[in-house]
Amino acid sequence: MPKEMRKGEISEPNLEEQGIFPKRFKSHNDSAGIVSDYFRKNKKFGTEAELLERMEKPAENELGTIYVHTPYCDKICSFCNLNRKQIDNDLEDYTSFLVSEFEKYGKTPYMKSKKINVIFFGGGTPTIYKEHQLERILKAINDNFTLTDDCEFTLETTLHNLNPKKIKILEKGGVNRLSVGIQTFSDRGRNILNRTFLKEETVKRLKNLKESFSGMVCTDIIYNYPDETVEEVLEDARIVKELKIDSTSFYSLMIYEGSQMSKDIRNNTLELNYELEKDFELHDAFLKSMLESGDYEVMEHTKIVRKGKDEYRYIRNTHQGKDILPIGVGAGGKIDNFEIFRLSQDKAFYAISSDENEMKMKRISGLLQYPKVYFDKLKEYVSDEMFDEIYKIFENFEKKGYLKIHETHTELTPEGIFWGNNISATILKKCLGGAKDVKSSSLFHINRKHKKNS
């Protein structure tokens, strides 16, 4: 059974290094953010002119990624506060904006020297576009960039935004991976999370998508929504396995300021009673159910994949620090040593980093997102003395039952996967000499009770 620090207990690095954590980190952003926050002071602001000047020269690395953000939905999930808004126009202007961005960056020597092996459309809901708009967008990508033959091309989607014609357009444009925001199959859970369709129709449409789409079909599952039962999370796992979904993410519910659910909780119209033991029970039930058939394996802390199927190359490229060209409002990425975040169609934030230590720490952060951490890879970025210190922490975690130490690597247990982001954060803080945690943007991920009005 997982244990957090007792109320009032002083949070000290040595306690975390012994596997006693002040709270559970549910997202990789909670651990990776430690690195970004630590090196923030070393960055300097840049400009688009400086970025474009850099892009007048060829890239040093041939392979690259494009991330495209669509900050629009036609129905917003109750837990979501991401960079999105409910659609209020036909998106014709935004489509033209994306096309112009593809043309602007695609003609640079930097991008012409690259072969794109990953494209990821996130949101929002990227399949919200009309058929002719999708055709324009996909054509612009293929016209302006060189894609590898095995390019992993993903669109996030909902079931109700897809139709047979759109699926054909996506396939023709090179899309070979769809990530479907299911969250849960439970009728009660889908109502709480403001999802379209009840269980029966959801399963039917997902099954039809698997049969009609030639690429991979992946899902997102959320557990520990209000009053979720073990039976409900096991049913989610059963359906994912039965439909042979190629991969699924699984996150404990995170409620953010600005979401409808956060407002309902503050207004006492929704009850939230987060308990660590319940979080672990649901995580453990889902994970073990997915693994028991032998068809699935853990790829990273919050991703389970069918063996031999989904590589999820996008997240691997991210962890390895490869170039990600960000296109669209709300998109973030990096080109060479420029970090970029698109604030609006005419504004963006640019930061320039030349700190080699930051690069090393980000690579370590990436290595720690996987269930197996290989010692030779870790030693590429830390001194022998630091590795010895990290190894001692691994030994402490092994005593807690979080991982097993093998000759060449460590391997997380199911309980270790539950605490995976805390384990990552602990190692990162050790490497940084005691850096502080970053404040989570999730409002309610520590023990807290809110009562409904009677």
Automatic annotation (TrEMBL):
<protein>
    <submittedName>
        <fullName>Radical SAM protein</fullName>
    </submittedName>
</protein>
<dbReference type="GO" id="GO:0005737">
    <property type="term" value="C:cytoplasm"/>
</dbReference>
<dbReference type="GO" id="GO:0006779">
    <property type="term" value="P:porphyrin-containing compound biosynthetic process"/>
</dbReference>
<feature type="domain" description="Radical SAM core">
    <location>
        <begin position="58"/>
        <end position="295"/>
    </location>
</feature>
<keyword id="KW-0408">Iron</keyword>
<keyword id="KW-0479">Metal-binding</keyword>
<keyword id="KW-0411">Iron-sulfur</keyword>
<keyword id="KW-0949">S-adenosyl-L-methionine</keyword>
<dbReference type="InterPro" id="IPR034505">
    <property type="entry name" value="Coproporphyrinogen-III_oxidase"/>
</dbReference>
<dbReference type="GO" id="GO:0003824">
    <property type="term" value="F:catalytic activity"/>
</dbReference>
<dbReference type="GO" id="GO:0051539">
    <property type="term" value="F:4 iron, 4 sulfur cluster binding"/>
</dbReference>
<dbReference type="InterPro" id="IPR007197">
    <property type="entry name" value="rSAM"/>
</dbReference>
<dbReference type="InterPro" id="IPR006638">
    <property type="entry name" value="Elp3/MiaA/NifB-like_rSAM"/>
</dbReference>
<dbReference type="GO" id="GO:0046872">
    <property type="term" value="F:metal ion binding"/>
</dbReference>
<dbReference type="InterPro" id="IPR058240">
    <property type="entry name" value="rSAM_sf"/>
</dbReference>
<dbReference type="Pfam" id="PF04055">
    <property type="entry name" value="Radical_SAM"/>
</dbReference>
<dbReference type="InterPro" id="IPR013785">
    <property type="entry name" value="Aldolase_TIM"/>
</dbReference>
